[in-house]
Amino acid sequence: MSVDIDTVRRVARLARIAVTEAEAEAMQGELNAILGFVQQLDEVDVSGVEPMTSVTPMTMKKRQDKVTSGNIADDIVANSPATEDHFFMVPKVVE
User: Which residues form a coiled coil (predicted)?
Assistant: First the structure.
């Protein structure tokens, strides 16, 4: 896939980037190089590769899905300088 200059201008407009004519021509070459690299990645056979969370084998840490004693809202907001109905009160910062 090859990117033409009109596509570069359109991408720049969508990204809200001001691009001069010289910059657009340079970006055209860069985008074509990036798309060429992505096209090379598409040729790699990954049919036997399992998805992984890290480059080192590890299991994901999961918490127990169990019911706990709730109703500790008073303990949660105990150190807050101002609370109301178990909610933190903060000063208004936006008019």
Answer: none
